[in-house]
């Protein structure tokens, strides 16, 4: 009988404040979806960092007639210069491996890496990418020592550290994550305020019933339970809707990012499922706690 009464009171409260309940569900859904999207972006950044930082290389591009460096535009690098550079690199203690890549190999790798952007590939011709040495470092942080020794050597055009490119890219992803979490925080504050107003209005509409329950000896927990569960159920429904939005975030944002930008690794559905469960639990807990605190603060029952 007690369970039936509590459930009946929950239904009455939700039905009487249907407009505010719907607003609360929508607010919670958006807040939890943005919160989950921020977590997905964080997982994407961490997964990409752990995957790509182990594969970081220093690219030493050699002189070619197509180089932007004026000192390299007269002729391509000579065989003697190439052999001297390779020998110097192999002697450096910071270097663990050196691979030479000619123009044909560089162009083939370029087409494979950017196969998802056919327009970009078509605008690049074979020979536009010069010969290079792809250098694997024992410690990626020791890039400057290698660059300083190679720059200015005969036959060297430019030295590019892939780690710096990755850092700039991951800073952009971190910015997206901070933006999503900031908006989510604003939505969470709005949800807490809506929960408070909804619970207060529901308690005001049922003040006669709660007064009678108080007179017959009902405990505070028994009286407050329907109001707290109203908020929790609204949070649960909002969390479930946020899970649907997270599926769209995964498909339209995370997967598209991984497909269009070759530097990003794919994020598995197991991670998305874990974020969904966390978002739902957080939404339920948020609304339940907000309801409880509102009752303690504003209602003397």
UniProtKB/TrEMBL annotation:
- Protein name in the entry: Cell division protein FtsX
- Compartments it resides in: Cell membrane
Q: What does this protein do?
A: Part of the ABC transporter FtsEX involved in cellular division.
**Keyword Cell division in annotation:** yes
- The superkingdom of the source organism is Bacteria
Q: Does the keyword Flavoprotein apply?
A: no
Oligomer and partners? Forms a membrane-associated complex with FtsE.
Pfam (any one): FtsX
Q: Which gene encodes it?
A: ftsX
UniProt cross-references to InterPro entries, sorted A to Z: ABC3_permease_C (IPR003838), FtsX (IPR004513), FtsX_actino (IPR047929), FtsX_ECD (IPR040690)
Q: Which UniProt keywords apply?
A: Cell cycle, Cell division, Cell membrane, Membrane, Transmembrane, Transmembrane helix
Gene3D superfamilies per the UniProt record, alphabetical: 3.30.70.3040
Family statement: Belongs to the ABC-4 integral membrane protein family. FtsX subfamily.
Q: Which residues cross the membrane?
A: 21-41, 176-199, 227-248, 268-295
